[in-house]
Amino acid sequence: MRQVELRGPRDIKVAEAADPTPSVGEVLVEAKATALCGTDIHIYAGDTPVSYPRVPGHEATGVVREVGEGVDAFAPGDHVVFNPNLNCWSCERCILGKENLCESIQLLGREVDGTMSQLLTMPQTHTFRIPDDMAFGLGALIQPLSTAVHAQSLVDIKPSESAVVLGLGGTGLMHVQLSKLAGAYPVIAVGRSPWKLELADKFGADIIISARDKDPVAEVRRAAGGDGANVVIEAVGSPETMHQALAMTKPGGRMLGFGITPLPWDGIQLLQLYLNQLTMMFSRATTRANFFRTVNLVTSGQIDLAPLLTREYDMADAAEAFRATEEEQSQVLRVVIRH
Ligand SMILES: [Zn+2]
Ligand SMILES: [Zn+2]
Fold it and tell me: Taking the model in full, what pTM does it have?
């Protein structure tokens, strides 16, 4: 089979490898599409260390070709999507239903080889059926959506609460749709690229604010009634926007850190957190239950992923797909590689 290999920072090659065989409890899948996200780009650029060569990718779909011993939930021909955070199911966090925080968690494409190959094996516990008529490229966006669904389950927006989504990348735009679905009003979308603000509008945001030409904190506070919003979702991942998100949160409100940054968060005013009784929360990956809910949200048509898929590349052009995703951030949401 062919696979994509990361052989060092920004060094992508397509190479031949031996076909894998499924172990007990695993399915062998013909992988069809992998979407790229910020996590992949951090690995690609060398910011996140991995051992080389590493097969990248964790947002993927495919068709089951063969099932290993003990697999009862899948049959050859099933179309599937994967939860790529491999956990042990036996540590305390796994037992308590927080398997996204498993003590020995391994992400495909980071600690172990990922999905950018023609064949791969997956535990059936991390495999989910999708409809046969769902495009594989679109199905690959179910995994990032599941991380947003998990985050939403933590922040738990109540109908009529005001909600801000700060940052309109792929997952930010998913949060716009999920906040509407939860009954938030108004949903305030804050972004920089005009075309992404337009998409937020299409996805039902009630108020659109461009952070390019206005002070987003002042604009959000004004739009949300003067003292901020009940819920603010930070979907950028920078200390500056985390500060903005806190400043947009109404006294008694909740700020959800969804964006990821390795930078320290200096300058937090603890007295302000106390005086305003703010709740800060953070969300990592997803759980099996929230992945299952996500598949249902998409197959029932409640979430529209199609406008988030910007471009598709063939596996032979994987190097160009990575380059474009890193360098043309303002022009792409999700890039997908077809296997
Ligand atoms: Zn991802
Ligand atoms: Zn565990």
Answer: 0.96
